[in-house]
Amino acid sequence: MKASRLLVLAVALVAGIIAAMLAVKMSNRPPAPAPVVAAAPVAPPAPETVDVLVAGGDISTGKRIAAGDFVWQPFPKAGIVEAYITRAAHPKAAEDYADWVARSAFFKGEPVNEQRLLKAERGFMSVILTPGMRATAVEVKAVSSAGGFILPNDHVDIILTRAAPKGMNADPYVSETILTNIRILAVDQQVADTKDSASMLAKDTVTLELTQRQAEIVAQSQQLGVISLALRALRDRETPVGEEESTDVGGSVRVVRYGVSSTVSIRR
Question: What is the pTM of this model?
Answer without folding.
Answer: 0.54
